[in-house]
């Protein structure tokens, strides 16, 4: 069973698990920007424990409906949400700390205009697709069990190529005392022989979207082994 859920809050679902692998060779998420009213999402199926000093990273490229003349007007866009109550309620994640930022306030005809700003326009140039990395500071969620989803909001007309997402991971800065054992179902358990006393980054990789069966067991948090 996949570690991802695909669906919509309004209109058609536009997301799929993509065998196209632009970065890490294991699959990606792809959602079209439909020419019809839609609020579609790709969500993690299981919670992860958010440790102190943790950041959500992913790499993405997108093209959402917009016009550039006489000035930039954004009709559709995408953004990230989180839940800490097992999916009962979702809130927009706003704490971007580096990389590509929310850059677009979409027009009032978009069903999620009140979520602005969001990712809008495009990350492309004349030579082809341009992938950007975005990171979110998850300090406000420290100590909580959370999951995340990526949302595309489209208005009733137009449309564009959409959003590709890859390389999703949680990265935690830790003060290392001895070796660090990564006790997480997000990756096989592994011991990292890091130097004593260093400030290092432990990465908990989110299962990448692949069209095959993956473990559906809930994740456990990282712990230190002295």
Describe the protein.
The protein is mainly β and 226 residues long. It has a single domain, classed as Sandwich (Jelly Rolls). Helices cover 0% and strands 47% of the residues. The chain is built from no helices and 20 strands. It has strands spanning 4-10, 15-18, 28-33, 38-44, 48-49, 54-63, 66-67, 73-74, 77-83, 91-92, 96-99, 124-125, 128-129, 132-137, 145-154, 160-175, 179-182, 190-192, 199-205, 223-225. Strands 2, 3, 6, 11, 14, 16 and 19 form a seven-stranded antiparallel sheet that branches. Strands 1, 4, 5, 9, 10 and 15 form a six-stranded antiparallel sheet that branches. A three-stranded antiparallel sheet has the order 18-17-20, with no helix packed on it. A hairpin with a 7-residue loop joins strand 17 and strand 18 (190-192). The protein is globular and about 50 Å long. It starts with a strand and ends with a strand.
Helix-strand sequence: EEEEEEEEEEEEEEEEEEEE
Average pLDDT metric: 78
Largest sheet: 7 strands, antiparallel
- The CATH superfamily is identified as Galactose-binding domain-like
Strand content: over 45%
Number of domains: 1
Structural class: mainly beta
Low-confidence stretches: 176-200, 210-226
Helix content: under 10%
Which CATH class applies here?
Mainly Beta
The best one-word shape is globular
CATH T-level topology:
Jelly Rolls
* Distance linking N and C termini: 35 Å
- What is the C-alpha radius of gyration, as a whole number of Å? 18 Å
* Structure summary, number of beta strands: 20
What is the annotated CATH architecture?
Sandwich
Quickly count the helices.
Answer: 0
């Amino acid at each position: 069973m996949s570690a991802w859920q695909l669906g919509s809050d309004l209109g058609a679902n536009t997301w799929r698990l993509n065998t196209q692998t632009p970065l890490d060779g294991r699959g990606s998420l792809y959602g079209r920007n439909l020419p019809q009213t839609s609020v579609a999402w790709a969500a993690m199926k299981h919670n992860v424990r958010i440790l102190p000093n943790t950041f959500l990273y992913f790499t993405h490229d997108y093209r959402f409906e917009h016009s550039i003349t006489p000035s930039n007007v954004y009709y559709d866009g995408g953004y990230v949400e989180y839940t800490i109550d097992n999916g009962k309620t979702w809130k927009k994640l706003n704490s971007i700390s580096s990389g590509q930022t929310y850059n677009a306030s979409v027009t009032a005809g978009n069903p999620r205009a009140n979520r602005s700003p969001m990712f809008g326009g495009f990350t492309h140039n004349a030579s082809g697709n341009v992938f950007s990395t975005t990171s979110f500071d998850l300090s406000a969620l420290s100590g909580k069990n959370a999951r995340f989803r990526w949302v595309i909001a489209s208005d009733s007309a137009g449309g564009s190529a959409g959003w590709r997402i890859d390389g999703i991971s949680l990265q935690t800065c830790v003060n290392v005392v001895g070796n660090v054992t990564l006790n997480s179902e997000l990756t096989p358990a592994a011991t990292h022989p890091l130097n004593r006393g260093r400030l290092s980054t432990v990465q908990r990789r989110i299962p990448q979207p692949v069209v095959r069966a993956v473990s559906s067991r809930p994740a456990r948090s990282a712990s230190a082994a002295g």
